[in-house]
Amino acid sequence: MAALQAGGYDAIVIGAGPNGLVAANALADAGWSVLLLEAQPEVGGAVRSAEVTAPGFTTDLFSAFHPLAAASPVIRDLDLHHHGLEWRHAPAVLAHQLDDGRTAVLHRDPARTAAGLDAFASGDGDAWLALFQEWQRVRDDVLTALFTPFPPVRAGSRLWRTLRTSGVLRLARLAVSPVRRFGEEQFAGEGGRLLLTGNAQHSDIPPDGAGSALFGWLLAMLGQDVGFPVPRGGAGALAGALAARARSRGAEIRTGAPVVEIVVRSRRARAVRLADGTLLTASRAILADVTAPALYQELLSRVSMPARLREDVRRFQWDNATLKLNWALDGPVPWRGEEARLAGTVHLGVDLEGFVDLAADLAVGRMPRRPFVLFGQMTTADPSRSPAGTESAWAYTHLPHRHAADGAALDRLTAQVEEAVERVAPGFGRLVRARHVQSPADLEAADANLVGGALNAGTSGLHQQLVLRPVPGPGRPETPIDGLYLASASAHPGGGVHGACGWNAALTALRAHGPLGAVRTALSRTAWDRVLADGER
Known about the structure:
This protein has about 525 residues and is an alpha/beta fold. The protein has helices spanning about 20-30, 65-70, 75, 110-120, 125-145, 155-175, 180-185, 190-200, 210-225, 235-250, 290-300, 305-315, 350-365, 380, 405-425, 430, 440-445, 500-510, 515-535, and strands at about 10-15, 35, 50, 60, 85-90, 90-95, 105, 230, 250-255, 260-265, 270-275, 280-290, 320-330, 345-350, 375, 390-400, 430-440, 485. It is built from 19 helices and 18 strands. The two termini are about 40 Å apart. It has 3 domains: about 10-40 and about 255-315 and about 470-535, FAD/NAD(P)-binding domain (3-Layer(bba) Sandwich), CATH 3.50.50; about 50-65 and about 90-110 and about 225-235 and about 315-455, Polyamine Oxidase, Chain A, domain 2, CATH 3.90.660; about 110-215, no CATH class. Helices cover about 40% and strands about 20% of the residues.
């Protein structure tokens, strides 16, 4: 067994996904010595790209379009353009293609979006513009509230001053509303409702579920605001820029270095043990960009924990499993709706009623009878992704976890996805030069945080958000172990490439060693002790 490394580091970050990379940058900026450890051969977590279909075709293996990254003050303030990041946009942001050829389109220009929605129902364009105008009033404070440690006192106070009591109550109602109801209240026609509901399905909350309106509204407004940009050259360019910046600040990054244990002494995280037995010490903090179950059930398996906490972690709920298909196409996708050819992201497969039917299938663990398909046209957004005149494309859809390892069910779902695309893009199949399929197991093998193909490190349902994420507790990055912080999307504010989970963990660790550090640590310990003690009664 290797001895403790002499000197060690101020902080060790476990996992080089976007949250781990952001955390390493924040700690290194503060002058701490930082070691970032990644189990995979390369950094990025679920922000990576590769040629997996055909030579010359770059595929984003996981996340692809990044409105949250473009809007996130955390990512923006890192000035990643100095480290090679270039954003690219498709001519249109997003389209929802119905089987009959009608298409709802989200453009960067609000007036163009509004004009298209008026074609579904007169007056819906004005309703969209009013919705966007209200977004502009609250944008900065809403994003700050979402992306900073809970509770967001300053941002909440500013929102209250801006909106007053009536406005805050209406915003709170939106935040807990089902997107189906919200869309019906806002729009007479299908167009606006499709844009809201399709965006809500980027989470796992059903259209009739409380809180789905918030996700639909947020992503639709961000699409109108910052677009759905992609990194030039592939999603891996975003991770590469984060890694380059961290190294430029002195952070050390080791890949192919899986952590198997966090060593705790006297209720404080002291070191990590690698799979090869190497023990590395951290004098100030250990930040874990891993899922909550992986942290408590695996990395801390030798540490005595209250039975209540173990039970809460056992009840942790994952979001739905995912099947992803990637294609190298010999030409542009022949969409029925001409405007869909301009969009980087295309939603298809279901109409408004189909969203509800799909949610019912997933809720009872039944394979979807008509899957909702999220389709990406990467060359349309970034011409560097494939040879001129071709298209690098992908699609994903969700399925219940109970069928995630059923090969026959996955084959049927693969066929259903391609049939859904063919319905709205006749001749699509003839363009396929090569196809590459990522099953739920494939996704998890490439990134251990994508358990069973779950993309958001846990459900986005209200029962697992804020002070309930990842388990009932303070709702902050601190854990019951001093000096150990949860820095993954299992923590508030959850899934998405925004870096906030890593930033919040790093900020909390830095404050624990600031002027009031001892007080902050004592308050955190007291909060956890009270929660867990109450649970034992």
